[in-house]
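seq/struct pair 1
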Amino acid sequence: MGRVIAMRGPATDLPIVLRDVGYRVREVAILDRVSLCLTAGAPTVLIGPNGAGKTTLLHIGMGLIRPTSGQVTFGGHGGGAPSRRAIVFQRPVMLRRSVAANIEYALSSAGLARGEWPERGAQLLDMVGLAGLGDRPARRLSGGEQQRLALARALARDPEVLFLDEPTASLDPAATKAVEDVVRAVAARGIKVVMSTHDLAEARRIAGDVVLLHRGRIVESGPAAEFFAGPRTDQARRFLAGELLV
């Protein structure tokens, strides 16, 4: 894939620590007293039913929204611009430009010198399996290809932490595998992946750690192998058995 052009500074955003974090919209508690420590290493996967608070937790970890109670720290400090964090939304918007131009826009936003765009852009497209598609209009890509392009744009920031909100939702098995392969490659490069999914099989394939959310609270969390082999709580056992948590 060629030499990776490093853009990182010496500072770190890890660990990301949430202490008794709450997030309310009017009288509705979206998150309720959530405490979580996100550290370097294998991917952390958030699971749970719709409305559990997974997306809100990702947004708070990214720094897009502030909690209404509790505290969040990044590498021991509070807040600041998310220069070393990136996020891919469940339905990313493609610019009305070519695939290559989408990447170049992201590289420009990340502050990379214009002369380095072609090499870095080619590296990113190769990494996500889109090499040779640079001239194609981004909005004419398939859903899975668009998701991988969104991953490439996020990686243009050379993040330390990458948040992914349901990255394979509505994708067919082949497209899902292609996205999962990119996620594994990203994690293998030392980037911390924090990802939400409804797919328990996907969580088994990807996760190093699992966080089960329900009604805005963490029901159970821990190493994925232990969670799937022997969940400690009744809610987790029922969720893994396919029962609806209401």
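seq/struct pair 2
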Amino acid sequence: MPIHAPAKLNLCLYLGPPRDDGLHELCSLFEPAALADLIEVRESERDEVICPGVEGTNLAARALAALRERGWERPPLRIEIEKRIPVAAGLGGGSADAAAVLRSAAGDVADLPRIAAEIGADVPSQLDPSLALVRGFGEKVEPLPDPVEHAVLLLPGAGGLSTAAVFAEADRLGLGRGATELDDLADQLRAVAGGGASPLAYTELLVNDLEPAARSLRPEIDTALEALQAAGAPQTLLTGSGPTAFGLFENLAAARAAAAELDRDDAIVCAAGRAP
């Protein structure tokens, strides 16, 4: 049976100032979507990760190598990834794949969260895909109760927007908040999301501080957000560093109706809030 590696949505992303190590302090609310990569793991003659459509080093391959470095003794594995999550779209697909590989070593290898943080900022939160308050550069993960089920309409466009480029543009634009403000926002998010409410109940907190930087690099994001608003999305956002824009809806029927009205080839409708 294939392993599901669900996409990640940032319901909000508050940006702190740059740190000495070049990373940024963040305060974000992550939730999984039903959109997921499918991963098949089989024993083989040697370790290999097969992922059509992804060039260069795959985060899943890095995760497997990290497990071997820590003495994981499971026989050699062939890991095949069917990509359903658009690549470089702010949806955390590569991180989800890496986390799924790490989960396969649960109970065999110690301190998986630390290994996850060494691989990538979004990987720790995907070890147990669920609604979570995420702090630090992504390594501090505080699980929250499952929200009321809802749906999203994703418009990833052409994808391919570099996370590093977006953060650099955010620094150039002088975006960011102080540490005290991030702490205050975290408290507000715990209060409103801690009871399992739908994110549509606290839309005033659903803000992505990276949006101006991403829009500066990809002006077509404006068009996607405007299209979602015109199609009746109660709330529109950018996820992660983009370029995926998405609209929140109360249910799948409403999201599907909006997608039909938009009639865009890149539109993806799925449930959100709980892992598949």
